[in-house]
Amino acid sequence: MTTPPVCDYEGSDYQTSFWDQGGREYEDRAEAIALKRLLPARGNFLLELGAGAGRNTPRYTGYDRIFLLDYSRTQLQQARARLGDSPRYVYIAADIYRLPFSDSLFDGATMIRTLHHMADAPKALAQVRNTLQPGATFILEFANTLNLKAILRYWLGKQSWSPFTLEPVEFAALNFDFHPRAIRQWLEKLGFRLEKTLTVSHFRIGLLKRIFPAGFLAAIDGLIQPSGAWWQVTPSVFVKASLPGSNGLPKNDDPLSWFKCPECNAYPLNDRGDHLHCPGCGRKWSFHDGIYDFREPVS
What we know:
Blueprint: H1 14-20, H2 25-38, E1 43-49, E2 63-70, H3 73-83, E3 89-93, E4 106-111, H4 121-131, E5 132-143, H5 148-155, E6 169-172, E7 175-177, H6 180-189, E8 193-200, H7 206-211, H8 214-224, E9 236-242, E10 270-271, E11 275-277, E12 284-288, E13 291-298
Parallel strand pairs: 1-2, 1-4, 2-3, 3-13, 4-5
Antiparallel strand pairs: 5-9, 6-7, 8-9, 10-11, 11-12, 12-13
């Protein structure tokens, strides 16, 4: 199956170099405020797309079980070392364009700092849509082309691309910015209802972060975030979307009811201890060191 290219963080020290030691405390705190505003009070199964090393996972306190999905196995190993082997956490290495889940499995999903790596964002969002049940909540963060810095640079002739067009902008290899209207159109086409929009990281400026404490900037950011209902000029935008209907579909604690073959969509798979076997195409998908691996079948 041919799919778009994937941005692979395998072997990366992203959590340490970018978040822990990269001067991003303000952004992390501001995102925590946004998530607290948008997350439902309670939920059953949550799919965390682009979970990485589990930075946001402890914030999903209302959900009974969290499925951490990332393409990088080493990122999931870091998440597992941080969060442990509680039955509440399920670790999955997979391609977002070939999600290995049975339809309508989740009543919630988050996708934070992940869409900006999607060469085909509508295709990725459609895959997410298939995993969600009626009434599910989807919290999406995206990098915004229409941010104030990009607008000023364009007006001053220091930037060739226009922040006002709807096409995604690839500013570096597999790093994309998106126009808020394009995101809305894609989500609405998939049947989502947009409930809330927050603008985040208003003060992502090195000088301000050096002058003011991270907690102070995040608190002010939190006060301004609801302005996203009217305009979006920050580098980061959070959207809360939902599907029509009511959830409450029964959940099964048997992992064989969670997964389907990402190659042929056969369901359910057969448990063989160290791998899941597809009865449809015969492929084997590894289960090793607590991580289900659906990137490539094993021989």
